Amino acid sequence: MKRNSRLSAVLHALMHMAERETPMTSDDLALCLDTNAVVVRRTMAGLRDAGIVQSGRGHGGGWHFARPLAEISLLDIYNALGEPIVFQIGPATEMPGCVVEQSVNRVIGDALKDAEAILMARFAGTTLADLAADFRVAAKLCRADTG
Amino acid sequence: MKRNSRLSAVLHALMHMAERETPMTSDDLALCLDTNAVVVRRTMAGLRDAGIVQSGRGHGGGWHFARPLAEISLLDIYNALGEPIVFQIGPATEMPGCVVEQSVNRVIGDALKDAEAILMARFAGTTLADLAADFRVAAKLCRADTG
DNA sequence: TTTCATGTAACAATAATAGTTACGAAGCGC
DNA sequence: GCGCTTCGTAACTATTATTGTTACATGAAA
Ligand code: FES
Ligand code: FES
């Protein structure tokens, strides 16, 4: 099955934005992400509604951050993308009268809930500033290595 | 997005089988799961290949367990279903030359790996016997409750 | 007022999953 | 052996979710 890499993609876009002073247009970002400008707008719309980024129209318009990178966690972004479902697997549709189904769903549901909590905690503990710092170090090492 | 409830469904089927002495046909199980016999065979084929259940043809044929319920963990079943991917979200396709992508993928990948480990541990620690016991207790309570 | 850029709806393309049909092979009972 | 049952599997269709594309309206700057 195919994984949804929207979170990954949007983080990539945000890192690009973090490296710039001026706003980036949807077309710029679409080029970076190898996709379409409308897709970028669709995705970024969630972040804008969540107050993470802001968009401007007309000349000099585009996307820029609404607050410091250190105050934006991966969890914020994850939530803003509007994908509350983490797991591919999940319990079946509720069958109120069926005890078997309920037992199965409880066992699976509990396990998924635990795993999800771990994941959300990790996301909450990482900010965009952390991520930017991480890749800048890597980039510097890489550059030093190459020559 | 829609969740994949194959694990849930197959557990339901196995609980039905656990309640029976004689093998159950694909048609029987399809009726229980409200689906098609071919779909049941497709799903159960994985379990058969993993040595969890056995199938027999002709009169009196059908599906039955290959070993005691206490020796079958949810992890066994999960693996037998051939769905190694747990999460809907995931890193983007590898871009070897791109440091940003690598950083993003590492952060997300690590978090996912931790969460997945928790989930797998839970699955490994639960057997079909546990599940059967759980629902039998619930069923008894329910029956007592109803009268 | 022209140009640039987002906002959004509508539609097409793509892909994954599930369901269906059809037919062959294996096993049991007579 | 014969016929019935049941799995095994391929091929096809249906459904659904996601993504990509086109088109046009709106707002802002030069
Ligand atoms: S429908 Fe409830 S046990 Fe199968
Ligand atoms: S392509 Fe955007 S940083 Fe690598």
In short, what is this structure?
With 147 residues, chain A is mainly alpha-helical. Chain A contains 6 helices and 2 strands.
Word description of this protein:
Chains A, B: It comes from Shinella lacus. Chains A, B: This is Rrf2 family transcriptional regulator. Chains A, B: InterPro entries: Tscrpt_reg_Rrf2, WH-like_DNA-bd_sf, WH_DNA-bd_sf. The structure is a homodimer of 147-residue chains. With 147 residues, the first copy, chain A, is mostly helical. Chain A has a single domain, classed as Arc Repressor Mutant, subunit A (Orthogonal Bundle), CATH 1.10.10.10. In chain A, 59% of the residues lie in helices and 5% in strands. Chain A has a two-stranded antiparallel sheet with strand order 1-2. In chain A, strand 1 and strand 2 form a beta hairpin. The mean pLDDT of chain A is 88. Chains A and B meet through helix 1, helix 5 and helix 6 of A and helix 1, helix 5 and helix 6 of B. Bound molecules: FE2/S2 (inorganic) cluster (2 copies). One FE2/S2 (inorganic) cluster sits at the interface of chains A and B. Chain A binds a DNA duplex (30 and 30 nucleotides) through helix 3.
Please describe the topology of this protein:
The structure is a homodimer of 147-residue chains.
Chain A lengths: L5 H13 L7 H8 L3 H13 L3 E4 L5 E4 L8 H7 L18 H26 L3 H19 L1
Antiparallel strand pairs in A: 1-2
Chain A binds a DNA duplex (30 and 30 nucleotides) through helix 3.
Protein name (chains A, B): Rrf2 family transcriptional regulator
InterPro entries (chains A, B): Tscrpt_reg_Rrf2, WH-like_DNA-bd_sf, WH_DNA-bd_sf
Pfam families (chains A, B): Rrf2 (PF02082)
